[in-house]
Amino acid sequence: MGKKNKNKDKDLISNEVTENNDASNETTEIEETATDSVKEEKIDSKKEAKEKAKQEKLNAKKEAKAQKKAENKEKRAETFNAVKTTFNVYAFVVKIVAAVILIAFAIVILVQQNQAYFAIFIITAGVTLITAIIRSISAAVKKDEKPQVKKVTLVVSLIHAIISIYLIVAAIVFKNEIDSNSSRSGFTQFNLDNYPIFLAAILYSEAVAFFMNTVLYKVESGKFMFWLHITFITLAVVILSFGNNLDTQKIVIALAVISLVCALFVGGEAIIGYFKYRNGKKAEDADKVKDTKEENKGIEAPTNRQDEPLIDPNIIDRKDDNDSAIIQ
């Protein structure tokens, strides 16, 4: 019995030791797990901090880039507005130059009738190209115009520029043939035969663009422009009806008249623009003078201290007793 009890005690002790070892192992495992989780949390927090810092840097770069882009855009807008203002103020100078050139073209084609076709091609190309350039600049500068109006204007200007460049090339080829006393080439003959079509295309497209802008897109215009484009479309129909039977001299005279009419129109706009510029300048000068006067009124003139008597503030002004006494 004693042995059995001893064995039982040993078994109990060994079980307790085993349980204690298991508990310590479990505690160690829990502690290791907690340590690992803490480490993982630290690593994750470091990663998050790095990613956050990286994201903040990217956001700062994006903001700086956007701010720089906005500043550049604002500078471009200021430059554009300055150019626009300058162009609007001095547009009459450009129109005066255009009117002078148109008059010069008209004189040249009337004088050089011995080279009528060359003069016709040059004057047509010159007038059309100058008008297309002025119209394109005006359409690009004006921001308040409708997009449809700008598209129509730019398309017509492009068509006119292409026809003008083609006619300039045809005129140069024709001039070289005249100077070399050579026979007309097929290219020159084609251009001479089909010149009325080129001219009618220019006049007709100009009239169509005008009526599209005024009728479809409600662009305001005056009576003069209305009748001018009615004339253009009528001339286009008349030219196409005559075809190749048109007399060269008559074409020269007709183009000279058209050039003078265009010069009159552009010159009239230049004169109106000049008077607007002068009136604006006078109004600006008057405003400056008015502002200067108002500033001068706000400043009080200094008083002359030498003319004022010196009075001691400690002295009390008293009246004579004889004057103020009352005898009872």
What does this 3D model show about the protein?
The protein is mainly α and 328 residues long. The chain has 2 domains: 80 residues; 183 residues. α2 packs antiparallel against α7, α3 packs parallel to α5 and α3 runs parallel beside α7. The longest helix is centred in the first third of the chain and has 88 residues. The termini are far apart. The C terminus is likely disordered.
Give the structure's gist in a few sentences:
The protein has 328 residues and is mainly α. The chain is 84% helix and 0% strand. It has helices spanning 2-89, 91-111, 116-141, 147-179, 186-216, 223-242, 248-298, 321-324.
Write the layout of secondary structure elements.
Layout: H1 2-89, H2 91-111, H3 116-141, H4 147-179, H5 186-216, H6 223-242, H7 248-298, H8 321-324
